[in-house]
Each structure stands twice: as structure tokens, then as C-alpha cells.
Design brief:
Elements lengths: L3 H9 L4 H36 L6 H16 L9 H39 L10 H17 L4 H12 L8 H13 L6 H14 L5 H4 L4 H12 L7 H41 L8 H18 L17 H12 L1 H9 L1 H6 L3 H13 L12 H4 L4 H20 L3 H14 L7 H14 L3 H16 L2
Helix pairs in contact: 1-2, 1-13, 1-14, 2-11, 2-12, 2-13, 2-16, 3-4, 3-11, 4-10, 4-11, 4-19, 5-6, 5-20, 5-21, 6-19, 7-18, 8-18, 8-19, 10-11, 11-16, 14-16
Length: about 475
Amino acid sequence: MKNLGYIASEITKGKNLEENLEKYGKGLTSLYNGLAYIKLSMNYYTILNMIKDNEIDDEHFLEIFQGVNEVIELSSIDSSVTERSMLVERIESLRNQIISIMESVTDYVDKFKVYEHVLNRVEHRYDDSVFDEEYYNTYMTNDIMHYIFSDKDNVSINARISDVVGQLPVRMSKGRFYDHISDAFTLYHGAQKQTIDDFYYSLSTSAMLGRADMDNSFFTDMHDIYVTLDKADYKNLDQAGYTRLKGALDIATEKMADAADIYVLLAQIVNDLYTIILSDNNTIGDNTEVNVAKDIILKSKSLFEDEQELDEIAELFTAFEGKQERILETVMAADFATQYAAANLNDTLDELALSDMYSSLEAISKLQSGSDFVDISPKEYFDAIPDDSYADMAAEKLITELDRLFTDCQQSVKRAVMAAVLSMLPVFFNNTEEIQDYINSSLIQCSDEAEKKAVVEVVRMIIAGQ
């Protein structure tokens, strides 16, 4: 719809709302519907091939995917239109299951990153490579500073500072570390509750404080590896012990990466199916791409169930060449009016009986935002801006939990956790001199040659990858 952006602009100017709100709502809904059908058909075909080739054997994944197939059978893709509220309930349940599993994946990934950091600092105890002490003590700080400021963009500079801080030796007192956390949360004074909660969550998971791995039955073999890594004596670890732990960590890291890939793909399928359920009743006319997508989904499903090859389906995808890009371009040029209408035109939407359509559009825009696990339910609690004490209490809670963790934590693990958290904080330096002083201080205070070797190796990799 070439004039959708124009209609959106007219809505924000309050012009001809009775006609424009309906045209815009149905036009944007139709675009999202077509986009969702195209993406669903492609990802659905991909997953069927992966299952057929025995690339996926995760029982939770296969159970949820079976639920997806049941929703497809109940929806207008495969039969007459079923009661939408029932379909929404079914697809939302599947989506929540995926989110729960991905929380567990994220929890393990963050835990394994901490132990990767620990083992990286242990690795060089067992080699006889010569430590480049002159570079470490004389030139390394200059190289890091040049790396940080070789890009003039402030966002890039801050990202590079965070990368470096996460790899430098941590020789900071707990008190100073906690001060940095408290200071970071003061930056969230005046922020929405959801923003503060998200910041707390990101810090807590990076610090291994997440408990998703303990709260469900997902990836029980990963829990066993985590316990093994947690109980290891890193101070007295010999080479055989290191090799055993590194092997276990490599297996766990690969498995979690694979799990993340397939569950993201499954989440995208569920989001697209959810979009179709919310949009099917408000589309304009027939759509060639939608019909082709339906044909692909049903044929793929039928061939898979009959244990036949899916190769003949591949040629049907040529009908989609360039379609996604054109739809996205139009959507991005016009979707601003959805939020405008929700914020400013509720009474008008009620009068025109368009509230449900625009409510669905709000949810659809989140489902299609590219943030696969976004909360699509509006929550007034999270939209509220709390007193400054809310952020301060979140900081105190995090510090208390970290203090409890550190009580039983080995020094090397404690330092790895601190490095992970520091790398997640907003940059806490006020000027270039403070950055250089921090780098120098971190390097000088480290007396462990194996850790020094590891830091040189990792920092050189970061700089080489710029």
C-alpha cells in the first residue's frame, strides 16, 4: 500500500479520522499478515527439514513444535476459522513455554561465560610459552587506549571500553565494586520500572545469580556440568583437571549455542503464527503471497508426515523474492501512527469500533519488532515511573545477593563475576585520564603470570577484531 505512510501522517494531524483510521488499520494489518505468512512458511520448512535430518532431538522443542502443528490445524491456515480467543490462548501458552526455556538457556550461557573466563586465566599455567613482560608493562596500555579511541563515535567508544573492562585483571575491592553498582543505578532515577527491572536482570544473570536452571527440568545435563565447574578447585587445578573441565565447558557451550539457535527459530515461528491469528480477521482482500505461503506450509506438513522428501517445495519460495524487504520498508514508514492512535485517540477508536483492531496492531508490532521474546502484554505497573528509591533498592538487592555469592566463592570465580558485571555497567569513567589509570592499575596489580598471558592474548584478539 503505497499511500499508507501518507494516511499515517494524516492520522497524526487529526484529519478525516473516521476513514483514515480504518484504512490505516486494515492496510497495516494486511502488511503484517503477509509478512508473517512468508516468514512462517520459510522457517516452518526449515525446521521440518532439520527434524527430518535428525538435527533436532530436544524433547521440549519437539513437544512445543507439535503444539504449533495443532494450532496450524485449528487455524484458518488448515481449516475453517476457529474461535480466535482459544487460538490466542494456545499460542500464548506455547510462547510462554519457549520464553521459560530461553531464560534457562540464558542463565546457563551466562554461568558458562564466567567459568570460561576462569579457565582462560588458568590455561597458561601448563604451557612453557615466554611471557612478553615488556609489552605487558610498557606498550599494552597504549595499544588499548588507541583501540578504544580509534573510533570517534561515543557509542562505539563506550562499547569498546566495556569489552576491555570485562577482560582486564580485576583487583578491585568489594566496596569499590559495590560503589560502581550503586552509582550505575542512580542513572536510572526517573526511569520506568520495566527499564530498571531489565537492568537489574541483565546484571544478575551476568553475575550467575539467575536461578532458571534450578527452577525447571530443562537441560538437566547442563546443570550437572555447572555443578562440576562450580565445585572445582581452581587454585590447585592440575593440567588433567583443566583438560577435563575445559572439555566439559566446550560441550556445554556448544549445546547451549545450538539450543539458543533452534529456540529462537521456534520463537519466530510462534510469533508469526500469533501475528496471523491476531490479523487474519482484519486483512484487505486476497493476497498472492499469503496463498503461496499457506500452500508451502500445508504441503511441507503433509510431505513430512508421509515421510517424503521436501525438496519439491523449495521452488515455491521464488514467489517471495524481494517481498519481505518491500513490506518492511512500507511498514517502517508508517507504523508510527499505531502508537500515536493508542496514546491519543482511544475515544475515537471506541466510537468507530476499532479498539480491538488497534490493540491487536500494538501486539503485532511487538511480535514483529525483531525482539523475539518481548513482553507483548501492556502492563501499567511497568510503565509507571517510580520514586528514586526503587532503583536504589534494586541496587541494594543486587549487592546483597552478590555478597552472599562471594561468601562461598573462590577468588578466581569472584573476579570473573566482577569482570562480567563491570562490563555490563554504564561506563563509569569521567575522562580519558581515568580510563588510562584504570587500565594501568589493573595490569600492574596482577601478579599471576598465567593470567597476564591470558590478558595479553585476549586483548590482542579484541584489538585485531576491530
